[in-house]
Amino acid sequence: MTTATTSATQETPMDETAAAAPTGNLEITVSRAELLRELTAAQSVVERKTTIPILSNFLFEADGDKLTITATDLDQSLRTSCTAKVKKAGACTIPARKLYDYIKLLPEGDISIKLMDNHWVQIRAGRSNTKMVGMARANFPQVPEFPASSAVKISVPSLKNMVSKTIFAISNEESRYTLNGALLVLKAESMAMVATDGHRLAHIEKLGETLEGISGEKKTLIPRKALAEISGLLGSTEAESLEFADDDQTLFFKIGGRVLTSRKLTGQFPNYEAVLPRDNTKFVIVRSEDLMGSIQRVAQFADERSGAIKIRLEQNELKLSSSSTDAGESEDTIETPYNYDPLVVGFNSQYLIDFLKAIGNTGEVRLEFKDAQSAGQMRPEDANEDVKYRYILMPMRI
């Protein structure tokens, strides 16, 4: 981290674009509702526990009839804007957390913001008058510009759905950094997203998407932190599509008037196609709601550390059971057509619950097995031909 940090802070004042940006004594009036909306979007990117004080600040830049707000933690940045009455074009930095908390407490109406001497910033609203201690604009790291020429348009609903169906399967282990993100696979007619933590894998493919400018296949690894931000931005936009672009180091997502950048994850994502089950011929179909209820009840009595529960398939019934020396034991039965050989297999109950939550706990779900030692596969049993979603789980020894 240190090398990136020092270079970022040193380069900024030298950068020509920084010099061209407004540097005067900013003075603006902006509506509280609009300002708060953009601060809410940007504040989640601000570095909380930083050793570099400037990263705890928002950068405000006012020019024309627009206020642009930037936040960064050096790994990712968000640039957003709203309309403002600009009396004097200029730029300043303001402590992000303090400003956000303060603006939330102000009544509706106009807020005037003015840069004073020594980087202090005056904020006036109604009868409130506050001065906050800012920092020099020159210390704020340069944020890369969106490369419009190489951007690909992606459907907002499709990407939103793909992120929600995969993000929970991303690894939390720092040491396995190529698994700390999801792989986005873009083709001319389809897009897919895959995430795995080595114990489970979520794979979703959306067919019938027309992606202009993509020939062959484009694979991009998107860090978990960026996916979480994207998910929030997609949830609050009315835009139908977003623009996605990348260069050697950075990923760019332009959603409405907001641009999120993220440092790329380097390294090779595992060959996930090799682990997708081919011959899971034994299957059972159950209502998601029934399965969720049974798992949640039985999981109460599973071993706390492993969370392991047992699935037993026999003639026309699915039995779930668990036991632990501390808590006791529990069994739940779901009646459902099943006409294959009996099968007993163990899984992590939380991993099963994660999948059922992701599909919204409605409709039916299909569980596919080969034997007790091989990966199981789960997928929603719906008639949606365009979206293929599957979840692969490694079994546990019980």
Automatic annotation (TrEMBL):
Presence of keyword Membrane: no
Any one biological process term the GO annotation gives: DNA strand elongation involved in DNA replication
Coiled-coil ranges from the UniProt annotation: none
Chain positions covered by the region annotation Disordered: 1-23
Alphabetical list of SUPFAM superfamilies matching this protein: DNA clamp (SSF55979)
Cell compartment(s), UniProt: Cytoplasm
CDD domains: beta_clamp
Record-level Gene Ontology MF annotations: 3'-5' exonuclease activity; DNA binding; DNA-directed DNA polymerase activity
GO cellular component: a single term: cytoplasm
Superkingdom, taxonomy of origin: Bacteria
Keywords attached to this entry: Cytoplasm, DNA replication, DNA-binding, DNA-directed DNA polymerase, Nucleotidyltransferase, Transferase
Residue span(s) of domain DNA polymerase III beta sliding clamp N-terminal: 27-144
NCBIfam families (alphabetical): dnan
Subunit structure, as described in the record: Forms a ring-shaped head-to-tail homodimer around DNA.
Protein name per UniProt: Beta sliding clamp
Origin species: Edaphobacter dinghuensis
